[in-house]
Amino acid sequence: MRLPFFVYGTLRPGEHNHDAFLRGRTRSEEPARLDGAVLYDGPGYPYAVPEPAGVVTGEVVSARPERYGELLRDLDHLEDYASGDPGNLYERVEREVTRTDGTVLRAWVYLAAPAVAARLRVHGRLIESGDWRARCRPPGSPRATGR
């Protein structure tokens, strides 16, 4: 199934993994949100964790058709994901995401694997805004620092 990808951390435009993994491989990148999840600091990278009342901000990325398989493989590798591996840090799952115009579509999302999510819920640092870019924003500041 060739779904787009919902990215919410270091793969977002302007973040350090965007150019290395997405530049030249995408057909479109649009702002979107993932309902039903919250964001935790890794540190250094985020984890989206299922939570009914949460919202995570990111982009929905559509791959160029001729680059899809290569991109999927490289993103799975970046996220340390292998289907069925109990040692995964992330699980690639199909979820609904919402574009800013209200359009809902299905996309691949890398969520924290169950053991990681359980640990984060107890010991993790929640990014209350749900926006990785806003994690360093001082209270009342209109702009994120964006690494």
Written description of the protein model:
By secondary structure, the protein is α+β, with helices and mostly antiparallel strands. The protein has a single domain (5-130), classed as Hypothetical upf0131 protein ytfp (Roll), CATH 3.10.490.10. Helices cover 18% and strands 40% of the residues. It contains three helices and six strands, in the order βαββαββαβ. The protein has helices at residues 16-21, 68-78, 114-123; strands spanning 5-7, 26-41, 46-63, 90-99, 104-112, 125-127. A five-stranded mixed barrel has the order 1-3-2-4-5. Strand 4 and strand 5 (104-112) form a beta hairpin. The radius of gyration is 15 Å and the shape is globular. Residues 141-147 have low confidence and may be disordered.
Put the structure in a nutshell.
The chain is an alpha+beta fold.
Task: Give the topology, please.
Elements: E1 5-7, H1 16-21, E2 26-41, E3 46-63, H2 68-78, E4 90-99, E5 104-112, H3 114-123, E6 125-127
Parallel strand pairs: 1-5
Antiparallel strand pairs: 1-3, 2-3, 2-4, 2-6, 4-5
GO molecular function, one term: transferase activity
Organism: Streptomyces luteolifulvus
Domain Gamma-glutamylcyclotransferase AIG2-like: 5-133
